[in-house]
């Protein structure tokens, strides 16, 4: 059988579960990809089902202050996304994506099981407020909080580990050198975010309702059981999966370039790049660029750069790096300005699952005899995402193709639109909170006392604009970021660039915790209330939202500057990318 015949039945660069070349007729395609997406839906169901309603549990059951409850939620979410870097490193360097998903899915199932038990046992939560001495609420003790923390961070470890590999393993099921399967891969990417949103929608509706009306232990038990079933389905497809071999961590490759350049920082660059070291195949080389020239010193050939093993002489990668390897690192560096200016969006996103939910708990949520769970208000957030994606796919893209010839907004334009919508969302949130606080003060005056446990006579639906604008913003910024970080990164570092994208979510949540702590200290005053009081009816959450709107507007201006710089550099760096994309055209 010649090369063409072998390529027609075997997927490029992929093997089956036995390690043999993957047969296209028996492996890969939509069925294995669907089994992988099942894991992602259950992960979203668990993580978001816990996160969107956790703040009400911390405040109402564990009796923690408002700001502290919000910070626990954002720290939990931030850690989940930060651990994606660990999962990506293990998948690239040691375990592979299949084992990484299987192991960390089991870890997440274990975490949700622990959380189900911790919320069921009476000794792991404080007594209700009405049974406490003198009518005061007793805060959860160290054992109770410690058990809760362990459960949450086991879940975070599972989420981070499997989330880093799900999308990559899904695309492994399609051969990008086969035109038919390449189009299927594009479809998989387009629908991946839809499945994430579907899992979130189930979480904020069905799961939150079960938490509030049936019991949290039942809801978290459902999460555990659904993840176990998803794992079994995932494992059932083992014989059908295509596997890619571990290629080594991109982080190590980046460090090698930095270390080699630092060791040779005192050397002079040669007059022409022809004297710089290059060992990459001609078809896969990246054109040299003039930016970050200090890194070019890693390609200067010097004494002691080579190691001799037996009769083989090879360069030490910590002393000598090829021009192509250096250019790959430069491409990653060019991502950083956009990376930095998208972090603040996820800080605003964090408010939708913390303070916005706390606002909802104080407001009128009835529709007839049905009481809407406070955490389920985020259904408008998820609805805005799905509506925005549908309108963009079906209407905006068609109109732009008809009028301008372009298939839609560029990735940078989508990111900019998402940031703009987040500014509007925070401004709307501030205005809604001004109205809510005025009603709270009036109720306190006419009621002759505190409104701590009273439902304010104001409809919760005035919060819809903030959920809608930020949700629509996420639809654009998430897809824009994912597109930007994948298309602007080297082929061998796409897992790394996806992890870099996910760290913007992580740092956004951590930044939210930091800002809440700082505002709490600065505005607390003698009474310790300030903008973020223990009871939000006594605080000035509108000022905090206004602060975020102002910071977001400044960040938007900074993004526009970074986007202009990134666009100016794309033509120089783009030539190298095109060379990478066109290699091995004569194979398969």
Topology:
Blueprint: H1 3-9, E1 10-15, E2 21-23, H2 30-60, H3 66-82, H4 84-120, H5 142-171, H6 179-213, H7 216-236, H8 250-263, E3 306-309, E4 312-315, H9 323-334, H10 336-341, H11 343-352, H12 355-361, E5 363-364, E6 366-367, E7 370-371, H13 379-403, H14 411-447, E8 456-459, H15 464-487, H16 494-523, H17 541-581
Describe the structure.
The protein is globular, with a radius of gyration of 26 Å. The chain folds into 3 domains: 14-128 and 137-248, MFS general substrate transporter like domains (Growth Hormone, Chain: A), CATH 1.20.1250.20; 252-331, no CATH class; 333-582, Up-down Bundle (Growth Hormone, Chain: A), CATH 1.20.1250. It is 65% helix and 5% strand. The strands form 4 sheets. It has a two-stranded antiparallel ribbon with strand order 1-2. A two-stranded antiparallel ribbon has the order 3-4. It has a two-stranded parallel ribbon with strand order 5-8. The chain is mainly alpha-helical. The chain has 17 helices and 8 strands. The two termini are 13 Å apart.
Q: What pattern of helices and strands is seen along the backbone?
A: HEEHHHHHHHEEHHHHEEEHHEHHH
| Helical proportion, percent range | 55-70%
How many structurally independent domains? 3
Low-pLDDT stretches are 1-7, 575-588
Considering the protein shown, what is the CATH homologous superfamily of the largest domain?
MFS general substrate transporter like domains
| Overall shape | globular
């Amino acid at each position: 059988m010649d090369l063409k015949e072998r390529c027609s039945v075997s997927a490029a660069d992929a093997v089956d579960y036995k390690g043999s070349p993957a047969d296209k007729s028996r492996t890969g395609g939509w069925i294995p990809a669907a089994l992988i997406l099942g894991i992602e839906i259950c992960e979203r169901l668990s993580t978001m089902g816990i996160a969107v309603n956790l703040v009400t549990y911390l405040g109402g059951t564990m009796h923690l202050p408002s700001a502290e409850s919000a910070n626990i939620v954002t720290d939990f979410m931030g850690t989940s996304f930060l651990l994606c870097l660990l999962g990506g490193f293990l998948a690239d360097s040691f375990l592979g994506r299949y084992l990484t998903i299987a192991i960390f899915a089991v870890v997440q199932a274990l975490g949700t099981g622990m959380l189900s038990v911790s919320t069921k046992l009476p000794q792991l939560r404080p007594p209700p407020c009405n049974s406490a001495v003198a009518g005061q609420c007793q805060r959860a003790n160290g054992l109770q909080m410690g058990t809760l923390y362990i459960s949450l961070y086991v879940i975070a470890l599972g989420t981070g580990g499997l989330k880093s590999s799900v999308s990559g393993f899904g695309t492994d099921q399609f051969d990008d050198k086969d035109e038919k399967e390449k189009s299927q891969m594009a479809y998989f990417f387009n629908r991946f975010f839809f499945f994430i949103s579907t899992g979130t929608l189930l979480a904020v509706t069905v799961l939150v309702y079960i938490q509030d009306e049936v019991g949290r232990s039942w809801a978290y038990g459902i999460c555990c059981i659904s993840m176990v079933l998803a794992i079994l389905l995932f494992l059932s497809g083992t014989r059908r999966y295509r596997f890619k071999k571990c290629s080594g961590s991109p982080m190590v490759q980046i460090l090698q370039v930095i270390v080699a350049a630092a060791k040779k920082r005192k050397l002079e660059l040669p007059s022409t790049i022809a004297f710089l070291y290059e060992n990459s195949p001609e078809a896969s080389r990246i054109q040299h660029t003039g930016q970050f020239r200090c890194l070019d010193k890693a390609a200067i050939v010097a004494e002691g750069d080579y190691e001799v093993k037996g009769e083989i002489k090879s360069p030490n990668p910590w002393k000598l790096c090829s021009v192509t390897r250096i250019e790959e690192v430069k491409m990653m560096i060019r991502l950083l300005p956009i990376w930095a200016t998208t972090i603040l969006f996820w800080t605003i996103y964090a408010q939708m699952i913390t303070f916005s939910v706390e606002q909802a708990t104080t407001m009128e949520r009835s529709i007839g005899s049905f009481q809407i769970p406070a955490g389920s208000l985020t259904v408008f957030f998820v609805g805005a995402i799905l509506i925005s994606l549908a309108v963009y796919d079906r209407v905006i893209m068609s109109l732009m193709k008809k009028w301008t010839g372009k298939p839609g907004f560029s990735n940078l334009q989508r990111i900019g639109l998402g940031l703009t919508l987040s500014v509007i969302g925070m401004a709307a949130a501030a205005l809604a909170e001004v109205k809510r606080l005025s009603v709270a003060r009036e109720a306190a005056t006419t009621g002759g006392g505190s409104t701590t446990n009273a439902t304010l006579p104001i409809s919760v639906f005035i919060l819809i604009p903030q959920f809608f604008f930020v949700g629509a913003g996420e639809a654009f910024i998430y897809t824009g970021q994912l597109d930007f970080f994948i298309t602007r990164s080297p082929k061998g570092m796409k897992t790394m660039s996806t992890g870099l994208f996910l760290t913007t979510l992580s740092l956004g949540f951590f930044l939210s915790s930091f800002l809440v702590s700082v505002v709490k200290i600065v505005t607390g005053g003698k009474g310790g209330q300030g903008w973020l009081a223990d009871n939000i009816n006594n605080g000035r959450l509108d000022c905090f939202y206004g602060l975020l709107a102002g910071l977001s507007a400044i960040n938007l201006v900074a993004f526009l500057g970074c986007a202009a710089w990134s666009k100016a550099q794309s033509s120089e760096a783009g030539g190298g990318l095109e060379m990478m994309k066109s290699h091995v055209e004569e194979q398969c």
